[in-house]
Design goal:
Among the domains are: 71-110 and 129-220, Tetratricopeptide repeat domain (Serine Threonine Protein Phosphatase 5, Tetratricopeptide repeat, Alpha Horseshoe); 271-395, Roll (Ubiquitin-like (UB roll)). It has helices spanning 19-25, 29-36, 57-65, 71-87, 91-106, 128-152, 156-169, 174-186, 190-203, 208-251, 308-315, 351-355, 374-388; strands at 2-5, 11-14, 255-257, 271-272, 282-290, 295-303, 331-336, 342-345, 361-363, 367-373, 392-395. By secondary structure, the protein is an alpha/beta fold. It has 13 helices and eleven strands. The chain is 49% helix and 14% strand. A hairpin with a 5-residue loop joins strand 7 and strand 8 (342-345). Helix 6 (128-152) runs parallel beside helix 8, helix 7 runs antiparallel to helix 8 (174-186) and helix 8 runs parallel beside helix 10 (208-251).
């Protein structure tokens, strides 16, 4: 008997500490936590050994218990654990338990150990028909619940596949129709969503989730149809505008051509003042090139009724022209012809008349006019002729 002192110094008897408690008390905190982690109930991390490189018998026993019993019993155990996780919205864990349950149903049927003997061994004969019914119920539940997990994780394709598996087991499973319809709606597969929802409502016309889903599908259909209608209207309007523009160009004898590498003009384009009236005024994006100085100016909307000198009047003087050689009186303008030559552009001639001569062409929707000082023009023309081997024509005002 151990002795214990009281505050007055007197000795009083006390019971000896049990050996197990004495052993625990002698352990450090780290040693105690390590020991607890070997017990499945207290585990905070998986310990596959007994702490000395051997086998953790308690853990192995617990793992083996999960697979004890018939296929239905094993699968039901996993299903219940999956349901617990699903109620806690632990969708990944829940899905894993449903996976295990489905795998158990596809595995071999567990039978009594043939070597087992003794008074505690009870011979049980399986009713195969009854077991098959149980397995079918569990399989249906696992597939439809795994579909929920996939739906919540936005794995819509997997959700649809699980619903299909559910319906192969039970063609009247309302949840399968609802969840597959919801997944199809999320994927904008409206035909399939409508079918799933309709089949479900045919079984239960008062099912509130299916009624709500039907409303969502109808709203999505209406929205997509309105978007498609607006798209078609825009395309038809654009086609009509293109046709009107082509008619306007053709009636004015203006040639156009597209190359394989059009420039980026942003929103600049050949336009009619009234897009649906081919007789209304045309405007063109125009680039003025200064080839002898490698410079340029861009005019976004040059009217067919305007003349070149009207634009040169506000463009000149040029900020980089230190010699002041670019004046309206001291420059000449040229355009390339459709045949690859040059045509001289009269500064007082309207752009529409120049383009309507039938000699020039607009490439990639952009009119190009080269502007040169008169004393530089002849050399530039000669250089152009050497490169192209073409003749020069004149179109003066």
């Amino acid at each position: 008997m151990a002795q214990q002192s009281n505050p007055n110094g007197a000795q009083q008897a006390s019971a000896d500490m049990p050996p197990a408690m004495a052993e625990v008390k002698s352990q450090s905190v780290d040693e105690l936590l390590k020991e607890m982690n070997r017990m499945p109930l207290f585990m905070t991390q998986l310990d596959e050994t007994d702490g000395e490189g051997g086998e953790n018998l308690a853990l192995e026993a617990l793992k083996a218990m999960a697979y004890e019993g018939t296929r239905a019993e094993v699968a039901e155990n996993f299903r219940q654990q999956g349901n617990e996780c699903a109620r806690a919205k632990q969708w990944v864990d829940a899905k894993e338990f449903y996976n295990k349950a489905i795998a158990a149903l596809k595995g071999p049927q567990n039978h009594r150990d043939p070597d087992a003997a003794g008074p505690d061994v009870i011979e049980v004969e399986l009713d195969e028909e009854e077991e098959a019914k149980k397995e079918k119920v569990i399989e249906e539940a696992c597939y439809v619940n795994r579909a929920l997990c996939n739906l919540e994780k936005k794995n819509y394709r997997s959700c649809i596949l699980d619903c299909a598996a559910t319906l192969r087991v039970n063609p009247s499973n309302i949840k399968a129709f609802y969840r597959s319809g919801t997944a199809c709606l999320a994927l904008d597969k409206l035909l399939e969503a409508t079918w799933a929802c309709g089949r479900g409502l045919a079984i239960d016309s008062n099912n509130a989730p299916l009624i709500a889903l039907h409303t969502k599908i109808a709203a999505r259909k209406a929205y997509i149809e309105s978007v498609e209608k607006a798209r078609r209207a825009r395309e038809e309007k654009a086609a009509s505008e293109r046709a009107t523009l082509n008619l306007a160009l053709k009636s004015r004898n203006i040639l156009t051509r597209m190359s394989g590498q059009p420039p980026d003009l942003e929103d600049a384009a050949i336009k009619l003042e009234d897009v649906m009236d081919p007789s209304s005024t045309l405007t063109f994006p125009v680039i003025l090139l200064y080839p002898t100085h490698s410079q340029s100016d861009f005019i976004k909307a040059f009217s067919e009724r305007e003349k070149l000198d009207q634009h040169l009047d506000y463009i000149f003087p040029l900020p980089w022209d230190e010699q002041h050689v670019y004046t309206i009186e001291n420059v000449e303008a040229y355009m390339e012809t459709a045949a690859g030559g040059l045509i001289k552009v009269g500064k007082k001639m309207s752009l529409g008349k120049v383009l309507g001569s039938g000699k020039t062409e607009i490439v990639d929707g952009l009119v190009r006019i080269s502007v040169l000082p008169k004393d530089k023009a002849a050399d530039w023309i000669e250089e152009f002729k050497k490169r192209r081997g073409k003749a020069i024509s004149y179109n003066k005002s």
